[in-house]
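Work Package 3 (structural annotation) set out to generate three-dimensional models for the target panel prioritized at the project kickoff. During this period the team completed the workflow that converts sequence records into discrete structure tokens, so that structures can be stored uniformly alongside our sequence database. As a representative example, we reproduce one entry of 308 residues exactly as it appears in the project archive.
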Amino acid sequence: MANNSSVVGGETLMRNINYQVIIVQVLIAIFLWINFLLITTFFMKDFFYTTMRYILFANTLLSDCLVLIITNVLLIFSYFRLTMQMWYCLIFYLLSSLYTFVTPVTLTAMTLERYVAICMPLQHAELCSTRSALHCILIIHGLSAIPCILDLVVFFASAMINFHKQYRICSREVFTFHSWQGHFRSAVSQFYFLIMCITIVFSYVKIMQVAKAASGENKKSTWKGLRTVILHAFQLLLCLIQLWCPFMEAAVLQIDFMLYVNVRYFNYITFYLAPRCMSPLIYGLRDDKFCFVLKYYALCGSVARTNL
């Protein structure tokens, strides 16, 4: 009887996991299609790829697409218990870590761009040129790479000589050799997010001051910029929650394994996948010019060509 119960329980768990994996694949396909549509829209008008805020927006889209693809590949490998050589796993891990940071750092840069546009309009054209945008993207990747480099240093200092030749199921945990590594990663990440939060709050306060002093059309534009900063703050909050998820999951794991599986699945969908599509989509739909071109190409040219 006990054996029958364990078999039924195992089949139920496997069936739930099957459903979960299928749902994840459907969601990732939908999210990638939406992001691909947004990226295609970006390249369809030269105004977009010569304007800094749209260039940075495209950078977040490309970053999010890479994270979706990499995490999905690792999910499939883990689900089917497929192993890979640790060198390849290390590359996947570093890319995933890098572009996990690229998105929030880019959001902070987009907030600063709005701050310059509203609070320093005379310097905006000079400070936010196409060349400056490209330099900004390089700086973003450089800053985002620092936590990855620190992880890499710890890895080479701690790993055995033949570790890179081993075949294992690829996950973040295989690169954790000491208990303090998780706390170290969390400390670095929270330091980054503290700086980003200070930057966004500073920009919000300055834009708010300009909004109160503005009048007429300038006031409308300024308040729209202020709402954009609030959206960036919300996106950054979702990114910050991702950092807390492993701690919540570790606590739940001590209580019940099935609950741990469900919580981890919920966190992955809610705080990892959904924000990497829905937030950019909302941002794109809020922008009148981008939204008009997006509707035109999404509806296969059914929208009138006025202003295109």
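The first strand starts at residue 84 and ends at 85.
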